Amino acid sequence: MELGIDLIALLMLAAFLAGAIDAIAGGGGLITIPALMAAGIPPVQALATNKLQATFGTGGAVLAYARKGHIDFRRFAIPTIAAFLGSALGAYILMRIDPAFLEGLLPLLLIGMAVYFALARKLSDEDRHSKAGPLSLIAVALGIGCYDGFFGPGTGSFLTAALVAMFGFGLLRAVAHTKLLNFASNLAGLMVLMAGGHVIWITGIAMALANIVGGQFGAHGAMKFGAGIARPLLIVVSLALTIKLLADPQNPLTQTVLSWLT
Fold this sequence. Notes:
76% of the residues lie in helices and 0% in strands. The chain is an all-alpha fold. The chain has one domain (5-261). Helix 3 crosses helix 9. The longest helix is centred in the N-terminal third of the chain and has 25 residues, at 43-67. It is globular.
């Protein structure tokens, strides 16, 4: 599927904004996925192209945290493999689902994620005693990885919350290891969707570059001005783009609701 320069430019703007917000509060996929679908890209291709640009962003974050010594690669070797395998399974399931069903399901998932980000509590930066063992960590990585391969937005927040609440990590260490697991799940999902021929390469690479720049902008902005504006901005933009999707009378979910009302 070929897109015009004007649409690619708008998607790059969305990716820049998503990268900035993702660097501060996570959840950038809540902006890029509905933006891709609003541009007329079918659901599976939208998710695949989003995986391409997200993989660049998480890969860069892993390198940054690894250089500072914040990632325990030995402890997280098996959970990382679990996240990779779970995501591959999720992406495989995604490619087997009826596209019309996905067009109706994705707006519901996007709304659900926006509500989650609106209600989620701030996490502590202090390490605590772990409440769960290594097998639980593997299970969590596998399950959330599967979700990431199938859909994606909120994956980083879910992983971070689990590492803090269940495994006693402080916020900084939790985020660092979340990026490792999320990179593995992004990479696996991307590879499966690439094999299925669903990635729009020019658009994805352009968005990846914009996402990287946005991430740097967001990180510096957060350090200088604080991160208070990121979460409400994420929720507003996400819901606005989702409403645009639902405003299309051809959307299966919209058609279903209209049929109930008539």
